[in-house]
Design brief:
Layout (H helix, E strand, L loop, with lengths): L3 E9 L3 E9 L4 E9 L2 H13 L6 E7 L9 E10 L2 E15 L2 E13 L1 H10 L10 E5 L6
Antiparallel strand pairs: 1-2, 1-8, 2-3, 4-5, 5-6, 6-7
Helix pairs in contact: 1-2
Amino acid sequence: MQPRISVKRTWSDADVVQLSFEVCDGKSSFVVEAYAGLDWGTASAKNLKAFGEQIHGGIYDLEAGDDGPEYAGGAFRARFHWFRPRALLISTTQQGDFFEFKGAQVSDEAKMFLRTEPGLLDQFVAALPALDRCDGEEAVLQCVSVEQ
């Protein structure tokens, strides 16, 4: 399994898009769907491009949906952190839909930790605006082993 974050536009209407986020750390994989604004891809690309130029100590949160049982759909957050030049660390938190279990509202959740490089981030940033165009579009952030 190749470590990566894959974002795919699965559905849309006049107000929102539904995005599917697959996070794979090389050993495990977790998929969650979350709602976002119609311009999520372009806005995220703009913000990640600015973040990518910081290199030293910058932090950026890429988010879609919202956590908690009050919101429709799931939630995704990836915290990008320049740990040292050319070492971009990413911690992700994903939360699925809530459902009743033993009399309580619960959801599936996952935390994963990834590492990528500036050139791979640039490829991801270039692919993000396509998510705003039509259902079925996909942007993938390839990652490298954290254990290197």
